[in-house]
Amino acid sequence: MYIFYFSFSYILFIGIISATFYFLIPVFFLVLFLVCYKSEKRRLINGTLFNLFLTSTIIYLFLIYFETKDPFIYLILVGMLTIVSIILSSGLYFLLFFLLWNARQVKKKENTSLSNSLTLILSILIIILGSIYSLVYLGLPIWLAVIFGMFILIGLYFCIIFYNFLTISIIYQCNNPIYNQDYIIVLGSGLIDGDKISKLLSNRIEKAIEFYQQQKDINNKSLKLIMSGGQGVDELIPEAEAMKSYAIQIGIPSEDIIIEDQSTTTEENLLFSKNIIEIHSESKSYNAIFTTNNYHVFRASLFAKKVGLNADGIGAKTAFYFLPNAILREYVAILLLKKKQHTVVLALISLIMLVLSFLSFFWFQ
């Protein structure tokens, strides 16, 4: 982190003393990102703004190097270009290998379902898009190549959205709430054999307990744990009841635990917990956070914002093999939150490319 600060400060310094003023562009996007993130962390646009900052910084590096020939900036560019070259030359093959390997690992350790097969589906899509890309350069008629190019553009569009989503998800992990909370909401997850806590859920509970203990050690302020989770059709008891029992076994006093056992979705977890907090606090001001798994924490924060709950989340660790599918599942869920917007964009891309294909059919005969 210190290297990043030093490098960015040095690059800005070179831009200022050389009076190029190109540095104002990345500075603008950085300030815009910081202002937006400070005012509201729980927005997808923050990921886009941060990536605009990174992109404009890279462009600025090239511009300032051509102006100054600075050796330090040259080293930075060489390092960046080396990484990009490796990614372009073998990154796609590595990604494909990793996705197929992960699909095999998930199949061995989890039940077979659509949500657990996303890495396999993505690897198949990459193979299909790669084949389409190859066809574009195999002497196809231009009008037909344009139609194939439409699918490549659509794939690129979804890649950009995924990159922005992944960026803000990672940044949001850096959230460190102050030790002055009144409530911690623990988001539920499915039980094993109808009444047993899964590893995924135990990590969420233990993350909340870790914060609970740290706050008591730092300022001796007690807080309430809200175990949130209803009873699924294949569950013998509500998730909240099982979560409470687990926390008590670890040593949390029963009087410090509140259960919310009616919710069936993440949105309901947060909405119903918010209602309980407002009743319990007698509508007085309060501080609250929630815990879930690290891959899920950003999307959960969007639901917290939606239901009017002023609470940020902290993420519990997740087994590495489980992360790729989980992240892809979160990404698909994020896409569905804005499905109308994405449908319009896809329709525009398709329309433009089909018109270009139609025109090229007559121009290049």
From TrEMBL:
A GO CC annotation given for this chain: plasma membrane
Going by the UniProt record, its keywords in alphabetical order are: Membrane, Transmembrane, Transmembrane helix
- Superkingdom in the source lineage: Bacteria
InterPro entries under this entry?
A: Cell_Envelope_Assoc (IPR051599), DUF218 (IPR003848), Rossmann-like_a/b/a_fold (IPR014729)
Q: Where is the DUF218 domain?
A: 182-332
Cite a single GO BP annotation.
peptidoglycan metabolic process
**Name of the protein:** DUF218 domain-containing protein
Taxonomic lineage per UniProt? Answer: Bacteria, Bacillati, Bacillota, Bacilli, Lactobacillales
